[in-house]
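Q: What would this complex look like in 3D?
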Amino acid sequence: MYKTTTNSFGQTVIIRTNTDGSTTSFFEEQDNTDYQEYLEWLSEGNTPEEAE
Amino acid sequence: MASIKLKGDTSGEVTISAPAVAGTTTLELPATSSTLATQNALGVRNLIINGDMRIAQRGTSSSSYSSGDTYLTLDRWRSNISTAGTWTMSQDTDVPIGEGFATSMKWDCTTANSSLSANSYLYATQYLEGQNLQQLKKGTANAESLTLSFWVKSNKTGTYIAYLFDVDTPSYRYISKSYTINTADTWEKKTITYAGDTIGALDNDNARSLDLLFWLVAGTDFTSGTLQTSWGTTVNANRAVGQVNLADSTSNYINITGVQLEVGEGASDFEFLPYDVQLARCQRYCVAYGGVGTYEPFGIGVETSGTNASIQLGLPVTMRGSISLTASNVGDIRVSDGSAFAAATAINIDQRGFQQVMFNATVASGLAATKACRLIANNSLAPRIIFTSEL
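A: Here is my prediction, written as C-alpha cells for the whole assembly.
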C-alpha cells in the first residue's frame, strides 16, 4: 500500500496506492494528514516497500 | 448632521447618526425580537466554506461508500463511516425553491443496515482552521455563542444531531444539539445556537481546531447516554443521543444545503459568495486539474533523463500547508517535447511551496535530458492531478 522513495533532492517521498488505483505522494511533514495516516499505519506494525 | 445618543444603564453608549447627504435612508429592524448579527456583519461571517455545496472539484458523485474517513465529492465536506450501510454521496440539484441555492449535498442509502453495531456511525463534517476562529474568544470569559443554520430534506423524519467538536484542547470538548425533521420529503430550515465555551482556547494556527458535524447514523456507543447540550469533555455515549438510523432502508436519503455557522445568537440570511471567491476558498485545501479538456495542459518542465520529466506548476491560491499530490489515470497523460511523445507511468511530488509545486512524470523511455517539455492529457478526460492540503 505504501512505498518510500527519494526525490531529486534526496528527501524521502512516501507514495500510497489508493483503492481506485490512483497514487498519492507526500513528504514527511507533520501537518500533512496523509503523513499522519501513514504514521498510524506504521504504528500498526506495517512496513512500506521501497520504490523501484 | 443630526444624531441620537443612547446611554446604557450602567456604562457604554450608542450613537445613531444621519448621513450627511440629501434624501431619506431607511434602516429597517426585524418585526420580531431577535439579535442582529453584528460580528463580521460587513465581512465574511460564515465560518463554513462551501456551505451552499457549489464546489465539487473531486467530482459530483461518489458511490459504494461504506468505509473510510475521506473527502468524497464536495469540497471541504469530509465523510466518515463505519458499519452503517452503503451510500452514494453527491452534489445534487434538489434545493429549497426560491432561496437562491443551486446545489445541495445528498446522501442516498444503497445498502441498508437496519441492525446497527454499537460503534456504527456515519457523519458529514467540516474541519475549521484555528486561525480563522480567534474571534470566537473560546476559552475566555467573553466566549461567543455560535449559531448554525441550514436547509435539510429527508424522507425520514425524526431527531438528528449536529454538534461542534473542539479538537485542540487535550481533553477534546464538544457540544451536541438536536433538530427535528418534521415532514418527509420537504425542505425545512433549521437554526441551532450553541453557547460560547469559556474553557479551551483554540490554537491560532493553520491546523484543524473545530469541527462541525452532522450525524446521519449512530450506534449505541454514541447514543446510550444523555445528549450533551453544554460544552464538556468527550463522553462517547452522549454524543448523538436520539439520532435516527438513516441507514435502515434503501429508500432513505437526506439533502443538506445553505450551511452557515456564525458568531452570535441569531441566524442571518445565508451569505452567498461569488463563485470565484468560494472556489478560491476551497482551493486553499484542494486544487484539482484534469477533466476539463481532452488535451488539457498540466504544466511545463524539463526532461531530466530518458525516463523522467520534472514539471513545475503554479497554484491558483496559497495553500494551507503541506501538500499531497494524487494522480489518477496517468497512462492517459503524456510528456511531449516536440519529438518525443511518451505516456506517463507515474507522477509523484518532488518539491512544494505554498504557491508552486514541482513533480516528476516518469515514462518508460524516449526522453532526453535538458529538453524542455510539457505535460498534457492524451486525448482523454480521465486523468486527474489533485493537490491537497486538507485539515
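A: To summarize the key features: Chain B has a mean pLDDT of 93. The CA atoms of residues 328 and 384 of chain B lie 5 Å apart.
Q: Very helpful, thank you.
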